[in-house]
Amino acid sequence: GLSQYSSDPRTEWDLSAYSTREQVLEAVRNLRYKGGNTFTGLALTHVLEQNLKPDAGARLEAEKLVILLTDGKSQDDANLAAQTLKNLGIEIFAIGVKNADEAELRQVASEPLELTVYNVLDFPLLGSLVGKLTRVLCTRIKERSHKETAGSAVKDIPVSTGPQLSPTDLKISAVTSKSMHLAWSPPLRPPKKYRVVYYPSKGGTPKEVVLEGAVSSLQLSNLTSHTEYLVSVIPVYDTAVGDGLRGVTSTLPLSSPRSLRVSELSHNSLRLSWKAAQGATHYLVLCSAAPDRAED
């Protein structure tokens, strides 16, 4: 399976999409590069929520491996998202190109780092990693499969069982130009924590709030006015991640001053008055001479 990401992750194909080597190689040849920002944390969460679920082709009995390929430092918290995957027994290999941050790669990757972290100076050099990486991946899968059959079972991602693991009924209320209130119904089995991720739908830095599992509401503040926001509420358990709740809503535009009036005109002055704009702390008044032949 493959997902590409910038500000927003995008699944290119699921684990179950192709069944032969030739089909996968053809899909790679037809892939179009997605430029943009580097929100690695959001991408790792996308892979967990969208690509490593049974309906996307993930088999419960199979080992779970994620290979992260990045050419820059993440603009959000990649470490927190990576830790969630690793806690679920998913092994992460991190490959950096050009401007990748090696310290971040080492944070994100699974142990032992000498087998899971790679860094090259430019894209053409990625070819030099293929042979070694293939051998390492196959060996790791065999080792982990052997551990499982020997009785030390690795953690799997349980199939979400609806209300058992997943919250429901996300309500967004009290929306203003810079804030909104979120509330949801908790699952039957309260999670250890919730991750609440929110960001502007047209691109912008995702922000994240981590809440204790006993909490089921949150006030978001310091938002941008007149902007559509995407919101995700993701329950995190010790050995599982439930399905996330998602919502979309727009903050209100800033209120405007109204009823502009002009009075006390003289040859070089005039007085302006208006009805106040709610919440305004200052006003900027601009004036200029009207163009020739415009109405006086």
Automatic annotation (TrEMBL):
One Pfam match, given by its short name, reads fn3
Q: Give the Fibronectin type-III domain ranges.
A: 166-255
Query: What keywords tag this UniProt record?
Result: Extracellular matrix, Secreted
The answer to keyword Secreted applying to this record is: yes
Q: Keyword Secreted, does the record have it?
A: yes
Q: List residues traversing the bilayer.
A: none
- Listed InterPro entries: ECM_Assembly_Org, FN3_dom, FN3_sf, Ig-like_fold, VWF_A, vWFA_dom_sf
Q: What CDD domains does UniProt report for this protein, alphabetically?
A: FN3
Location in the cell reads: Secreted, Extracellular space, Extracellular matrix
SMART domains for this protein: FN3 (SM00060), VWA (SM00327)
All copies of domain VWFA, residue ranges: 1-133
Q: From which domain of life does this come?
A: Eukaryota
Protein name, entry field = COKA1 protein
